[in-house]
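Revision sheet: structure tokens.
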Amino acid sequence: MSSLKELAKNKVYEGTLTKYAFTSEALGGLTANFNLFLPSNASPTSKVPLLTYLAGLTCTEDNGAQKGGFFKDAASEGIALLFADTSPRGAGVEGEDADWDFGTGAGFYVDATAPAFAKHYNMLSHVTKELPAVLAAAGLPVDLDRQSIFGHSMGGHGALTIYLAAPGKYRSASAFSPIANPTECPWGKKAFSGYLKGGVEEGRARYDATELIRGVKEPVHILIDYGTGDNFYKQGQLLPENFLKAAREAGHDEVEVRVRSQEDYDHSYFFISTFAPDHVHFHANFLKA
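Predicted:
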């Protein structure tokens, strides 16, 4: 396994935010970056729970770290934060840089099965298997038995589907403005048609939170916020009501699945940072239980 290279380090709320790079096997041998926040109470003899953040379209590992507003509350709760990238970088696949909503910066947190993308576009394995293994191999003081996951937009889709597809691996999931029913919106149809050999139908079975929640019978812990002033919500890209309807039909009540509409908020990090404390403390309830 590739060793970590430290790129930058900053003190924040008495903890440290460190940016690392390593050679990623999951991403076909390309260099991958991530940011890791460790609160001041983390030590080899006192490992802390890990909350992973997945960013949205066009973003990198830096957006959530620089603009999310998560550190104060994570520090007070004694929780580590992992900020992953949104796609491989420099794969050289034809068409990966043609549009902002597909390819570079838009990996959709799937493991690609379409031949052109299958070598490099494996963000699901990168986030759920490779990054935890890299943290463990480096001896970083995070407790991988206590993990939760959250994200924004495309990253909200990633957080929800990763959580629902692997019951028990993550204790809770939350999302800001998630693409909650991707097989029924333009972004999701485009992504699945490109990355997956089986197209939208393969995506429906594996990577659509609204479809996945229908089949989950055990208790879940999910929080979703979206803004009524979000243009992508108005355009039908997010479809949180579809997810909520499916969750209720599957027997998940308000205690297990909360979907909150926030009046006039948009899709930006101004919205995310407003409700960031709610999400960090939501996860703390389960990570510290």
